[in-house]
Structures are given as structure tokens and as C-alpha cells.
Amino acid sequence: MRSMKTLICGLGLSLVLGGLPAQAEDVLIRNRPTMGVGQRLEYTDRVLAEAMRRTRHKYGPYRIEWIGGTLARERMLLEMLSGEQFNTTVIASQPSWEEQLLPIWIPVDMGLSNYRISLTHRNAQARIAAVRKLADLKALPVGVGAAWSSRKIMEANGFNLVTGESFDPLLKMLMAGRFDYFPRGMNEVFVEFDARSADNPDLAIENSMLIEFPLPTYIFVSPKTPRLHQRLREGMEMMVADGSLQRMLIEYHEEMIRRTNFCQRRVFRIENPLLTPGTPLQRKEVWFNPWDPKTGLCAKPAAARRPGK
């Protein structure tokens, strides 16, 4: 029997009102890793719950559950295709997922994961800070997960990659000097550093640059539950339209955004050749931009601060 925990319930009981049956209850079963960044999971839980709540007047009652367990991407895709164990997950996109599953083309984190800040060894900090050209950054050895979307992007851009199976083996390799820096999403790096710095006194957050590339994190829904996909998509569009998605994002990540110190970092922007035509690059309202004078933090536009090639 699968291990499952109910998070949020809609108002749905099997009642007969006025001689008419109650609407069918939509059940969202999320794959939720047991090992992960707590704040990130809490944020995505809330986004899913709000999208379902917003559509209750149209679609009726609902229930949200999650099934715990960390799965490899290939196994997760197979489970999502069958829809038997779970029907929803939130993950960085890959073309094969968009082709086989039902994506909602609104980045759940509004693109915070586009901005990569690196964990590094304190002895490598000065070497990275001296880099001014993208070509020189690419020459430095960089650690990345073998099955991660970021690995495919950086490989296509010619970076000098050192791969590992998962985060913890890569952290050990970083501490052993196997590579110079370990790019992480800005919604990951500070939590990971805070959790592991005591056991790794030479661990540091690289403080001079960030790598930017579009890597949207989407809600994916099993093709077995198209009604759930439509409901979530409509709920997410409502949240974008009234600005509540961005307000929620800032509420949960305000300290992290402050710690990122965007304004003082050099920005190395690279392309993501894995993007599909569905990627909403032209929809500025679905992306968080720290250099936007309306909602951002920095006076200088990003284009003026990017180093040379």
C-alpha cells in the first residue's frame, strides 16, 4: 500500500442536495520528494492548493494528497504516464515531459530557478571572482547532476562538466577539489548551504557572479487526468492575472532574494537549447525579473551588466 498523506481537502462530501448528486471530487495526488528543500516544497504545495481553490466555483470539490518518495526522473515519468500512484508533479521541464505529459506553461517559481548561484570551496572563490569572460568561466570545471536538465543545458553551451549521480556525492567532490563551482537554483542554494556548512567548514556561497538561463519549472499532470490539468491551468492563469502568484513568490522567498544580492553580481547568460515552442518567453508577467523597475531590486538593466564572451 502506498504511503500517502492528505494535505488539503475541498468541500466535498457525497451528498444529495435538492435531489441532484454532488459534483464529482477532483483528486490531485502529488509526487512530493521526502528529501528536498522544505521551503520550496511548502511554496509549491501552496501554489497547487490556491490554484485548486480558485476554481472550486466552476469545478466543484477537490482533495489534495501527496505520496512521498524520491524517484529518478525516468521512473517518475513512467509513473506519471500511468497515473496510478500519482497524477501531478512539479519539476524543471524537459522536452520529453512536455511531449508525453500535460504541462501548464506557467513557471511555478516565476523563473527563480533561471538564476544559478554556486556553492564553491573557499579556496576557489578568488579564482572564480577573477573571471570576466564567459569563455573563461566555461573553462573552469563545474559540477552538475548527470540526469539534471541543467547538465544538458551547460553541456550544449560548452562548459567543462564533472558529473555525479545526485547532490550529496557532488558536494563531496566539490569539497575534495574535483571542480570549482556547483551551480544551484537560487531557491536551493541558501537552504543547502545553511544545512551543510557546519559539517563542511570550507563550503562557501560564491559571491561574485550568477549564471542565468531559462529553465522553467512547470506543473505536470498525467494524461489520464485531463480535467485536473484544465482546472489547474485555469487556476494558475487567475493567479497570474491578479498578481497573487508574484506576491506569494515574494512572501515565501523574500529573504532568499535579499541574500542573492543581484545588484552586485556579474551575470553570465547562456541559452537553453531544450526549450520548446510552448515556453512562454514573451509573457513577461509570468517571469520574475529583479531588474524590472516596477518589481525589481536593481537600477541597472541586466543587459548592461553582462560580461563579454
Written account of the structure:
The chain is of the alpha+beta class and 309 residues long. It has eleven helices and 15 strands. Helix 1 crosses helix 10. 35% of the residues are buried. About 5% of the residues have low confidence.
Structure at a glance:
The protein has eleven helices and 15 strands. The chain is α+β, with helices and mostly antiparallel strands. It starts with a strand and ends in a 40-residue tail after the last strand.
Topology overview:
Elements: E1 4-9, E2 16-17, E3 20-21, E4 26-32, H1 38-54, H2 56-59, E5 62-68, H3 73-82, E6 88-92, H4 95-100, E7 102-104, E8 115-121, H5 125-129, H6 134-139, E9 141-145, H7 149-156, E10 160-164, H8 167-175, E11 181-185, H9 189-196, E12 203-205, E13 209-212, E14 217-221, H10 226-241, H11 244-260, E15 266-269
Parallel strand pairs: 4-5, 9-10, 13-15
Antiparallel strand pairs: 1-5, 2-3, 6-14, 7-14, 8-11, 8-12, 8-13
Helix pairs in contact: 1-10
Number of strands: 15
> What would the principal axes of the Cα set say about the shape?
globular
Count of runs of 4 or more consecutive helical residues? 11
User: Span from first to last CA?
Assistant: 54 Å
Q: What kind of sheet is the major sheet?
A: 5 strands, mixed
Low-pLDDT ranges:
6-21
Strand content: 15-25%
Average pLDDT level: 87
What is the element string, with H for helices and E for strands?
EEEEHHEHEHEEHHEHEHEHEEEHHE
The helix content is: 25-40%
Q: Provide the gyration radius in Å.
A: 21 Å
Which structural class is indicated by helix and strand composition? alpha+beta
